[in-house]
Amino acid sequence: MKVSIEVNGKKEEHDVEDRTLLVFFLRETLGLTGTNIGCDTTNCGACTVIMNGESVKSCTVLAAQADGQKVLTIEGLGTSQDDMHPMQEAFRQNHALQCGYCTPGMVMAAVSLVHDNPNITEAEVREGLEGNLCRCTGYHNIVKAVLAAAGSGGGDL
After folding, report:
1. CB contact set of 41 (below 8 Å; sequence gap of 6+)
2. pLDDT digits (tens, 9 = 90+) for 19-56
3. Strand, coil or helix: what is 2?
4. What φ, ψ does residue 21 adopt, rounded to 5°?
5. Pairing state of beta strands 54-57 and 48-51?
6. How far apart are CA 98 and CA 31, in angstroms?
7. All domains of the chain, ordered by start, with CATH?
8. CB atoms inside a 10 Å sphere around CB 35
9. Of 66, 71, 110, 126, which sits with the fewest C-beta atoms within 10 Å of its C-beta?
10. What is the torsion angle, in degrees rounded to the nearest 10, for the CA atoms of residue 42, residue 147, residue 50 and residue 29?
């Protein structure tokens, strides 16, 4: 089937198999490999992207379901190391990553959280990121980064 999805502000039209997951469409069809595949079962959140302003785990969304929708990936947040999104910058400044595998999904989920609640509390950050797993940091610096970004445009889509 043919899908038309706006990805990072650019309209993308491609033929895909009916069963193609959004994560594979992004990675294999568009070459946007910042969206990671961690579990294929919606448990880890490594594949989190923002669709129509809401964070979604792209391993559980079919590309066909995203037809006509707007998708934002980690590549669409900041254009370079010199032009990072406030959430990306907060993760860097607060040492909120180690191996980095969960980071794209964690950043995207955090942007959505702060977008929905700019005055977010520590407890709300912890609850809101429950579906995104990090095996390295213990979450302390991730929570610190999200709170820091909340005051500096970290929810800008």
Report:
1. 59
2. 999 999 999 999 999 999 998 788 999 999 999 999 99
3. strand
4. -80, 150
5. antiparallel
6. 24
7. 2-76 (3.10.20.30), 86-150 (1.10.150.120)
8. 25
9. 126
10. -80
